[in-house]
Write a structure and sequence with these properties.
The chain is α/β, with parallel strands linked by helices. The chain is built from eight helices and seven strands, in the order H-H-E-E-H-H-E-H-H-E-H-E-E-H-E. Strands 1-2-7-6-3 form a five-stranded mixed sheet, with helices on both faces. Strands 4-5 form a two-stranded antiparallel ribbon. The longest helix is centred in the N-terminal third of the chain and has 15 residues. It is globular and about 50 Å long. Bound molecules: zinc ion.
Length: about 210
């Protein structure tokens, strides 16, 4: 066996000896967790319809997935990315030419230090062997309290802006987002991607909130 093969082999063997990131008891078997913890995630592997769009959803927004997403998003628990990206990769993802992470505003980025959807999208892009494409940016996200349904939709649509420096165009893309609730932000992003000439837009999310 060549040396690099031996090293690779040794690395995965060592990883498996590490404890599961969720129960901290059993050894890691899949995406940094043990077999039992992986199986006990609230899987749905569904395609749901919102806002005249279809979204592929890996899990229900239920325990422990809801808590894991919160830890990853708001409490800097970036080590959970392997597990969360693994959940996205367990979906039957379509053949696309680029992966588009849901953008966050500069204010959110400064606050958080990273875009959680970009972190996950990088794993997906690597697996699909396609580039990450970020042709749309997001303006300041503010509270939507007190707005009517229509005002909310208009407000979300006005948050997304095509980057003028974007020259490359892709036709078949996959949007990655963490949680889908009403689907209006994905819809608004899709409209901008359509303006850029995208013909087929798919969306994959970690978890879907029942509405
Ligand atoms: Zn476990």
């Amino acid at each position: 066996m060549p040396m690099f093969k031996l090293l690779e082999h040794g690395k995965s063997w060592l990883t498996r000896l590490q404890p599961c990131q969720l129960c901290l008891t059993d050894h890691q078997a899949i995406h940094s967790v043990c077999q039992d913890c992986w199986q006990q995630l609230p899987w749905v592997h569904q395609t749901i319809q919102r806002q005249e769009m279809q979204f592929q959803v890996a899990c229900d927004y239920a325990y422990p997935m809801d808590r894991l997403i919160q830890l990853f998003k708001y409490e800097q628990k970036l080590h959970l990315q392997n597990l969360l990206a693994g959940a996205l990769l367990s979906l039957e993802l379509p053949k696309v030419t680029a992966v588009v992470p849901m953008p966050i505003s500069t204010e959110r980025l400064a606050e958080r230090g990273y875009n959680q959807s970009l972190v996950l999208a990088k794993h997906v892009a690597k697996k699909l062997n396609v580039p990450i494409w970020q042709p749309v940016s997001r303006l300041k996200q503010h509270s939507q309290k007190g707005l009517s349904r229509l005002e909310r939709i208009e407000d979300i649509q006005s948050q997304f802006q095509i980057n003028t420096f974007s020259r490359i165009r892709y036709r078949r893309v996959l949007i990655i987002d963490d949680v889908v609730t009403t689907g209006s932000s994905i819809r608004a992003l899709s409209q901008k991607l359509e303006e850029l000439g995208c013909q087929k837009i798919y969306a994959a999310c970690l978890a879907g909130v029942q509405i």
